[in-house]
Amino acid sequence: MGRPNATMSAMLVCPFGLAPSNLVPLPTPRVMVEGKPAATISDSLPGANIPPFGMCNSLANPAVAAATAAALGVLTPMPCVPTPVGTWVGGAATTMVGGKPALTLGATCQCAFGGTIQITNPGATRTMSS
Predict the structure, then answer these.
(1) Strands 96-97 and 100-101
(2) Which has the higher per-residue pLDDT, 94 or 111?
(3) Residue 32 has pLDDT above 80, yes or no
(4) What domain of life does the native source organism fall in (predicted)?
(5) Domains of the chain: which residue ranges?
């Protein structure tokens, strides 16, 4: 059995972010899934596809490290700037969207600051990919 397709507005979380975010596939000619653009594993551009998660509390983030040092070691969250390393992992094995594997529920993307960004709500409920 497949997993639900990730679409525009799929919910994303990062363990170091203080708020969830929503996936934004780029508005290029797309396959529509349940009336929304389907996402692919290459939809991992910071700012364009992956909006900020509010504030970041990862000490691997230079802004957080600097603010924490200035606060004499008290963890000081700073604005999140997602910095994905590569593409999403765990997309569909056989379902393609525009020649690229479809993005599905549970896929993850590493952030350069140590967080593992994950899709927790795919945006589609009836359409599955394998």
Answers:
(1) antiparallel
(2) 111
(3) yes
(4) Bacteria
(5) 3-129
